[in-house]
Amino acid sequence: MNVATPISLKNTTGPVAKATVCPHDCPSACALEVDIAADGRIGRVRGANANTYTAGVICAKVARYAERLYHPERLLVPKRRKGAKGSGDWQEISWEAALDEIADAFVRAEAAHGSEAIWPYFYAGTMGQVQRDSIERLRHAKRYSGFFGSICTNMAWTGYVMGTGALRGPDPREMAKSDCVVIWGTNPVATQVNVMTHAIRARKERGAKIVVVDVYDSPTMKQADVKIILKPGTDAALACAIMHIAFRDGYADRDYMAKFADDPTGLEAHLRAKTPEWAAGITGLSVDEIEAFARLVGTTKKTFFRLGYGFTRQRNGTVAMHAALSIATVLGSWQYEGGGAFHNNGELFKLDKRELMGTAYADPDIRMLDQSQIGRVLTGDAVALRHRGPVTALLIQNTNPMNVAPEQRLVRQGFMRDDLFTAVHEHFMTDTAQVADIVLPATMFVEHDDLYRAGGQNHILLGPKLVEPPATVRTNLFVIEELAKRLGVDHYPGFGLTEREHIDRMLLPHGWPGYEQLLTDKWVDCQPGFEESHYLNGFGYPDGKFRFRPDWANGPSPNKTPASLGPLGPHAELPLFPDQVDVIELADAQHPFRLATSPARNFLNSSFAETKTSREKEGRPDVMIHPDDAARLSIIDGDIVRLGNQRGSVRLHARIAESARRGVLIAEGLWPNTAHLDGEGINVLTGADPVAPYGGAAVHDNRVWLEKDLS
């Protein structure tokens, strides 16, 4: 397929290792070394040993990336739909014709309903700054509907920043210097393997204990010294009990809090009722488990709390993050190398993205539509549409909403509208591409230049173009530039620049090295010094104080809702201090189970689900059920079962597993809808109601019924 001469490798005979970056939606942004053969094909992909966070280790799915790049079903030519939507009837067309048709459709949509009828829709299928975010420049230039990216980070980032006042933390490499690593609400064995690299190093070199807090006995849990398996949506109750014990038993660092926290006296008074017995009744843990966990972190000064995304994808997820984060402040863990609480380093990477994204000509009066509510938007929900006109045209890059978005039945209904025009730029014929009008083939990361930043670590990294793409495949930037020409906005600032020019304009104003220097340096370590990283010069608020009492309706967040939207969800119900708040979907008589849709080891959201090895290793879509629950319902391993709630129902095969809790079901991985028994995936069951206070999708927060399928 791709056999062109590789970049800078003319006249070589054997493979040459070239540096790049994994582009996928993972906090690790692993530094890679890719073998490039003389015939232009990539070979072995491995982690860069010289990068001190990647440390030579990457996940297996990226290590076999050649399988994805040279997949026989990769999209290679533009296609136009011939038959009904979803029929699979296509004809090949030229790039010129495809782009002309997209531009014409957008012009017609704007003429009929105004510029907001077009919704450029994208997300993190690539984390490259240029290829991901250039779509925003076209949006702003044309005054198309705004995109509120809510599905992934909002609850986690908001909960963290409500406490610290900044989205940064201790050097994540310090896990290797810890005496106790608490991995809370994430499954890094499956989702960000480098966390385990540094945690296991701490255990080998220092005898550190690894504690894992999660809702099932995950692959990461199997690496733990201490397992804390609690009911979904009860993390804040556990955190409160830990802090209660810290105050009760003298583990709380009162001198530290007096200097660095807003109201430790009020917090202590609030927590007096949050006993281990209280928390045990909520979390399903025993009092002894809670006491032992509190004693371990309370007596271990160098405790590193590695806080993930998974436990925040509940309707009380923002509060849960803030509560877990607060433990490090009560204990004073921030004072020690190898201690503190880390979630994301997004604030470190100062990039000038004004030209890239066209922010100078953004119009604040243009409506912002919620990414997670695409089903409601496309089916005409007045609230989701902000009480304005319909969306009748979409340009989709870097995401697969027909598979990953909540309320899948609404999503499908919306995409199947006869009056909706959809253009999708993709690598494969995804669930979303299958219902498009025009499908465009996209380059993969080794086939274009881009710049990356690593939220889960501390580097800005260059991903240079290593091989020529197939002759009929184009970059995201190319599509945006060509549409800008056809739509008459290519004269706006930021258009007409190459990837390399965009990279330089992002980097150089902040004193970072430019593209040419990074070809040699490969990455920039952005981690500040110990005192700043650990907030020993004060937290990110003007008074330098950590907030035990956040202002939920007005406080900071890296992705705060626009003023036109204000706080979302039941924000008035959020507690004054850290506390359990049951705005989650609690199990009831009609829905006795809680369902979590956890990541699979061999998929990454919906990416890699197309590769043969990943699919073979995952087997088939199934749901994990505890043996006691299965026996009560006369379900045996491999039976077909049906899960349902008010949003719909899906059929899956049962997997009887001791690793699931009683009353909790686990469905791992986002399989293509077509891999399911009825052509509908697990997100039929997930909701799109926004999480308080600034939105987000509670995809792990679902109550369901379960029955053996007798059809």
UniProtKB/TrEMBL annotation:
The keyword Metal-binding applies. Residues 15-73 form the 4Fe-4S Mo/W bis-MGD-type domain. Keywords: Iron, Iron-sulfur, Metal-binding. InterPro entries: Asp_de-COase-like_dom_sf, MoPterin_dinucl-bd_dom, Mopterin_OxRdtase, Mopterin_OxRdtase_4Fe-4S_dom, Prok_Mopterin_Oxidored, YoaE_C. Belongs to the prokaryotic molybdopterin-containing oxidoreductase family. PANTHER family: OXIDOREDUCTASE YYAE-RELATED, TRIMETHYLAMINE-N-OXIDE REDUCTASE. This is Molybdopterin-dependent oxidoreductase. It comes from Rhizobium helianthi.
